[in-house]
Specification:
Helix content is about 25%, strand content about 10%. It is an alpha/beta fold. β6, α6 and β7 form a beta-alpha-beta unit. Pfam families: DUF3405 (PF11885).
């Protein structure tokens, strides 16, 4: 039996929005979030023994079902859209992958935990993400080596073949997969030389950017499939845990091998010690890889350090990751130009759910977004309980923008010649939400895109060789997808003129200058608290409609007034909740040492941060969560290390 997105609809998760009207609000900015700052035990009061699909209590968890979110490859409809033929690839077991086998595929449970909270921001419906199924730790990670040493009799836990992972070469498997599916992709995308270790230190003289491009005319008939590089960022001193390995394997299998090379995954390793000879001969570099990188990932690993960034961008004085997190990605795009898009992810993120399905839905949502009032919508924390369904939210933004100025086409900085398309009509009012529909996004983000210029955010004026009045946008956490043409422009300008912005302003701002399509994808964001939707919508969407979160009351202001809420997101630049959810989902109880002396750890502003959520697997079974993208997660071993999700 195979379960596909949409095959099962959980009636208990079909909530009607918006929420009922609330009483009068007494919320003041200085007390934001205090009233309902209570942990939500519903995340942990359920599991595989208490799913919404059961009518009577289970004595044992049901068996999960193989979950297949991939297109119907080689079907008549698929062939009408895409060139070539899909060929199955060889997996780590040394056999061709089977989309019907639980040894090769993720499995899921129809339904979810009873009374599981709904996302506060974003939604499954808005981006067409399947929120009607859930995953426990075995069904999610079993194909990647999880459960071999647990001694637990779990239907999903025991692969039929015990893989010797040290003998797997993921780079070789990806190369074989691309070769088998070569006719699906443009010719130059299948003839790249082997991975270079490290990135070359020589400066690449970037060609001048293209002149303004008009949208390409629609082409009839099957098209080449676009390819995406997936760069996973980590330090060379990372302490590898079994969960790191399992998560990386999941990305390689789900994104690359099962898709026939639509994605290719790389490890991009920041070598913090500039004295390590990463630019030396091949044998020395191999020694460093042997020293720091697990065997199975060594041939897909690329080293870089600050000296490399300085060599490529000598006119820009700043190269530290906090301020220039995209420079290594820019260099990678120049040395590996055979991709249409480049995803960047951090090692402290996790996806509970199927990664291919998540990225596919994010890309499709972005592609279908009209450009009319897009930059204004991007700035919101979309709150279904306050805004209603996505279409109703779009209508609200439309009405709010009457008589106001909107971003419509390029907004260039001084000295920038826009290269993106010009609007087909003079004003957005003349457009019937048609321009941009069906257009791939040059930038995809997972948090809102806002104007930081009049805020007290951490980096509002982090500009290099640019005047303070330069138009700009920002989106926290640089886990983005960027197009090749956007990265080309960012690289060219930094290399030849030395202009630059802080990391989280870079992609959004170059897109703004050139009139490229940038989209914030409103994926489901959970909050561990009892705040109401309308309460938080007021807190998290302040400002005028054309400048949401772009003024003195912005939630991005670094005044820590909303920390007690911000750090309880499932996805944020820093948060306690992501790690709480993930560690409980892995079956780890809260760390008792945080409470033994009765003194809970406090941050600089007097807020306490400690692990939340109690486990009760004997009663409820293993936690079974719907798809959710989590960040930040610093501890994936049963015993926590020194790194804290929220630094205190």
């Amino acid at each position: 039996m195979i379960l596909r997105p949409g095959d099962f609809i959980d009636p208990t998760r079909q909530k009607k929005y918006p929420d009922p009207p609330e009483g009068p609000s007494f919320l003041a900015p200085e007390t934001a979030g205090i009233l309902h700052d209570i942990r939500d035990d519903r995340f942990y009061s359920g599991g595989t023994l208490s799913l919404t699909t059961q009518t009577e209590p289970f004595e044992a968890p049901p068996s999960p079902i193989v979950y297949d979110p991939y297109p119907d490859y080689n079907s008549r409809e698929w062939k009408q859209q895409w060139k070539g033929y899909f060929y199955r690839c060889i997996g780590p077991r040394g056999t061709y992958l089977d989309h019907t086998s639980p040894d090769d595929m993720v499995s899921a449970y129809p339904g979810t935990q009873r009374d599981f909270p709904f996302p506060m921001f974003g939604s499954y419906d808005a981006i067409d993400l399947d929120g009607n199924v859930c995953f426990d730790r075995y069904s999610r990670y079993k194909p990647y080596g999880y459960g071999l040493d647990t001694g637990v009799d779990v239907p999903a836990a025991h692969p039929s073949v015990n893989i010797t992972w040290d003998e797997v070469d993921w780079a070789d498997l990806q190369a074989q997969c691309l070769h088998r599916n070569a006719k699906r992709y443009k010719g130059h995308q299948t003839k790249r030389p082997p991975v270079s270790h490290p990135l070359t230190q020589s400066f690449s003289k970037s060609e001048a950017p293209l002149l303004m491009q008009e949208p390409a005319a629609p082409v009839s008939g099957p098209q080449y499939q676009p390819r995406s590089a997936v760069l996973i960022r980590a330090w060379h001193t990372i302490k590898w845990t079994p969960n790191h390995l399992q998560y990386l394997r999941s990305l390689l299998m789900e994104l690359s091998l099962h898709s026939g090379a639509e994605y290719e995954v790389f490890l991009l390793i920041d070598v913090k010690d500039d004295f390590l000879p990463i630019f030396s001969d091949a044998s020395t570099v191999q020694y460093l890889k042997d020293l720091f990188i697990p065997t199975e990932f060594r041939n897909m690993t690329i080293f870089f350090n600050n000296k490399l960034l300085e060599g490529w961008y000598p006119l820009l004085e700043e190269h530290r990751p906090m301020y220039q997190h995209l420079q290594p990605v820019q260099i990678f795009s120049q040395l590996y130009p055979d991709f249409d898009y480049y995803w960047q992810f951090e090692m402290d993120s996790r996806n509970i759910g199927h990664m291919y399905h998540f990225l596919d839905r994010a890309v499709e949502f972005a592609k279908q977004q009209p450009r009319k009032y897009l930059w204004e919508r991007n700035a919101y924390f979309y709150t279904p309980g306050a805004h209603g369904p996505w279409e109703q939210f779009m209508g609200m933004v439309n009405e709010s923008m009457v008589g106001r100025r909107s971003v419509w086409g390029p907004v260039p900085a001084k000295g920038i010649m826009p290269t993106g398309p010009m609007p087909p009509v003079s004003t957005p009012e003349e457009d019937d939400y048609e321009w941009g529909v069906g257009e791939e996004a040059d930038l995809i983000t997972f948090l809102p895109i806002f104007d930081p210029s009049e805020t007290t955010w951490t980096f509002p004026d982090t500009l290099y060789n640019l005047p303070l009045e330069t138009p700009r946008r920002a989106s926290p956490v640089t886990m983005w997808r960027l197009s090749k043409r956007l990265l080309d422009l960012m690289h060219h300008d930094q290399a030849t003129t030395g202009i630059g912005l802080g990391s989280e302003m870079s992609g959004p701002t170059w897109a703004l200058w050139h009139g490229f399509k940038a989209v914030h994808v409103p994926h489901p964001l959970y909050l561990d608290g009892h705040w109401t939707a309308k309460e938080l919508s007021r807190v998290y969407n302040p400002g005028e409609p054309d400048k949401i979160n772009g003024g003195p009351h912005s939630v991005w202001n670094w005044n820590h007034m909303v920390d007690r809420i911000m750090y309880r997101f499932s996805y944020m630049f820093t948060t306690q909740t992501a790690e709480d959810l993930y560690r409980r989902w892995l079956g780890y109880p809260p760390d008792p040492s945080e409470r033994e002396d009765g003194r809970l750890p406090k941050d600089t502003w007097g807020l306490t941060w400690y692990e939340g959520g109690q486990l009760n697997e004997e009663t409820y079974g293993r936690l079974c969560f719907p798809p959710m993208f989590l960040h930040t997660i610093k501890n994936t071993e049963p015993e926590k290390g020194p790194d804290k999700a929220v630094p205190v």
